[in-house]
Write a structure and sequence with these properties.
With 421 residues, this protein is mainly beta. The strands form eight sheets. The protein has a five-stranded mixed β-sheet, with helices on one face. Strands 11-12-13-14-18 form a five-stranded mixed β-sheet, with no helix packed on it. Strand 24 and strand 25 form a beta hairpin. The longest helix has 15 residues. The radius of gyration is 24 Å and the shape is globular.
């Protein structure tokens, strides 16, 4: 007779709750068999009016990790005795994202971000592009004299929007877009970096921004489009001034030094604190009030990207290898990797947390793949999002229902994520 163990099913989704008394199952029970059992229990508990209720696909959390192997093997990996009653938490499985559109560009797409019904993208041919989330191209915006490496929306409403672009031409530009007339104007050129820029981050209050790049410096700027700058526009190249009218040069409010190589990512973690990732193998937390470093995490590879989530206060990172890593920057053991996610076959270039689901994130790699992960399932991604024919260079999940990515195949790919409400 097959060995058995006792399990107790629990869930935070009360519409799927079943009796919490223990059930006996074979130790070899799999996720699919547990899924059938829970659905049978739900069916047995339904009244006649609910008999036609659809079968639900569930995932199962045991010992803090999503079940991907037979239960006995999972318990052995976590050194849990099969003699005790095992608590099995279940929750509705994330639906598979559906491919939507492919937005064609003239060069590599190295930056992308969604806001409301609009997509902002930046290219290696020095241009910015505005698109609708339905795939319609609205504007091509020239101005930079080097590849654009980062973009970010600052403010947005139905009539006006502001956004920033950061380029290898050593500048960041603040733009104002009249949505109704579809006219865009460069209002401020941010000068101060001595080498190309790689990243830009907007504070939550939308009044400040931070930039980092190859000069290893982190610079803080005003993001207020209407605030006067310190220098007149005469110092800006005449070609740029002619194309975009009158504007001013903006200088940084603060420069923070400490990194030894290029800063590849910057994120605001609260109103005065920032997180940076660098090619010098370090992650750093900075305090703009004291103007210095609060803490440092040392990795063993160059960091290409990072993403901080306000929902779980964790950092995920992309590195010069095939792994995504999870860190808790505030723990005493912050330098210890909490989880390693391995499925990509080449360097991971970009990562991004979901803006609404604390356990979900995406990653993009040189292996042409975008992957959707659950942070409680390090052994395997939930889904592989295929479509790119070149390296994935950037990704974004700012809008809950849309996953977007750009790459060296000159495209932005759009997937509808179909998150459950």
């Amino acid at each position: 007779m097959a060995a058995q163990l006792h399990v107790r099913f629990i869930t935070k989704q009360q519409q799927y709750a079943v009796p919490d008394n223990p059930f006996t199952v074979p130790t070899s029970v799999t996720c699919n068999e547990l899924n059938s059992l829970v659905n049978e229990l739900l069916k047995a508990g339904n009244n006649e009016a609910d008999e036609q209720r659809r079968e639900v696909d569930f995932d199962f959390l045991v010992c803090g990790e999503v079940l991907r192997v037979p239960l006995a093997e999972h318990l052995e990996e976590h050194s849990v005795s099969s003699e005790a009653t095992v608590e099995v938490e279940y929750f509705e499985r994330v639906p598979a994202p559906e491919p939507q559109d492919c937005l064609l560009h003239d060069d590599w797409v190295s930056a992308v971000e969604v806001r409301s019904n609009w997509i902002l993208s930046g290219c290696y041919d020095n241009t910015l592009h505005l698109w609708t989330t339905k795939g319609k191209h609205r504007l091509t915006i020239p101005g930079h004299t080097g590849p654009i490496k980062a973009v970010a929306w600052v403010t947005h409403d139905d009539t006006m929007a502001t956004f920033v672009s950061a380029s290898h031409d050593q500048t960041a530009m603040l733009w104002e877009w009249n949505v109704a007339t579809n006219a865009v104007e460069c209002i401020h050129v941010c000068r101060g970096h001595e080498r190309g820029l790689e990243c830009v981050g907007i504070s939550r209050c939308q009044t400040k921004m931070a930039t980092g790049g190859w000069d290893t410096n982190l610079k803080i700027w005003s993001a207020d489009i209407h605030e006067s700058s310190d220098e007149p526009g005469e110092s800006v190249p005449k070609r740029l001034k002619t194309e975009h009218g009158k504007f001013q040069v903006r200088t940084p409010l603060m420069t923070l030094k400490g990194h030894k190589e290029a800063i590849s990512s910057v994120q605001w973690t609260d109103s005065s604190e920032l997180s940076t990732a660098s090619w010098d193998h370090t992650l750093r937390l900075w305090d703009t009030e004291i103007g210095g470093i609060k803490s440092e995490i040392v990795g063993n590879k160059s960091f290409f990207d990072s993403s901080w989530s306000p929902l779980n206060r964790m950092l995920i990172t992309a590195s010069a290898d095939k792994h995504v890593r999870l860190y808790d920057p505030r723990s005493r053991e912050g330098s210890l990797v909490k989880s390693t996610f391995t499925s990509h076959t080449q360097w991971v270039q970009a990562v991004q947390w979901s803006s609404t689901e604390e356990h979900l994130f995406i990653s993009g790699s040189h292996d042409q793949q975008v992957k959707l992960w659950d942070s409680r399932s390090p052994k395997a991604p939930l889904f592989d999002l295929k479509g790119h024919d070149g390296k994935v260079l950037c990704c974004d999940w700012s809008k809950p229902e849309l996953i977007v990515s750009g790459g060296s195949d000159n495209t932005v790919r759009i997937f509808r994520s179909n998150q459950r409400k």
